[in-house]
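A.,

Following up on our hallway conversation. Structure tokens first:
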């Protein structure tokens, strides 16, 4: 699945010349927040984080799918903040684990584990799986919601496999384990720019950005910052 083309950087924002619509980036994950803000740059929106709006309570992701979690999170924080909110839910699906951890990727192994701990847990679980059978994919669903309720979602998928060991220190989450064959490297070994061009989140946000540049999508945006 290839990423759709984005408006050129420096193009006029959807709200009109000189206006920078304000979007709430609805995540407490700092790595994800940076990626979301960076991927929204082509349409020159201003972004603000949850903490900057005084929102500190995490949203309980109880949905069974990425779409349910992303949509619920975006609606929740749009209603609380009074801003148009962008959220996503993403996960790693490992074939040898029957598609797990999937939507539970951020909580894989229990609440006491950090990213490095979850990566170690995953490597232990598939230690006996030979390299050709370590297929996996990253999935992301981005959602945009207005305080009044309208919501849209966009899905991206990136196919790869789980490396035999962690490689690289870039990115976050399972990136050091996610080997992407077309680049011959894990997501932990490549630059953010190269990752965004092919990643699951890059694809999903690319579709969202294209939507916001359309006539229908412009109706989701305020006319300026607030």
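Then the amino acids I'd put at each of the 226 positions:
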């Amino acid at each position: 699945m290839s990423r759709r083309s984005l408006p050129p950087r420096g193009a006029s924002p959807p709200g009109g010349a000189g206006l920078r619509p304000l979007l709430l980036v609805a995540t407490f994950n700092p790595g994800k927040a940076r990626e979301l803000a960076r991927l929204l740059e082509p349409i020159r929106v201003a972004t603000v984080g949850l903490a900057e709006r005084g929102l500190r309570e995490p949203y309980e992701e109880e949905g069974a799918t990425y779409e349910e979690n992303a949509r619920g999170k975006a609606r929740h924080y749009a209603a609380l903040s009074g801003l148009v909110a962008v959220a996503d839910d993403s996960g790693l699906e490992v074939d040898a684990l029957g598609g797990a951890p999937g939507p539970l990727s951020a909580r894989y192994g229990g609440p006491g584990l950090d990213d490095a701990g979850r990566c170690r847990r995953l490597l232990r679980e598939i230690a006996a799986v030979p390299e050709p059978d370590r297929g996996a994919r990253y999935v992301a669903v981005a959602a945009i919601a207005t305080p009044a309720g309208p919501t849209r979602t966009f899905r991206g998928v990136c196919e790869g496999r789980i490396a035999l060991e962690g490689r690289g220190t870039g990115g976050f989450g399972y990136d050091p384990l996610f080997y992407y064959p077309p680049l011959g490297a894990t997501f932990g070994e490549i630059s953010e720019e190269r990752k965004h061009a092919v990643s699951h989140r890059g694809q999903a946000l690319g579709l969202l950005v294209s939507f916001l540049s359309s006539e229908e999508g412009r109706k989701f945006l305020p006319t300026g910052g607030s």
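DSSP finds six helices and eight strands in the chain. Curious whether your intuition agrees with the design.

B.
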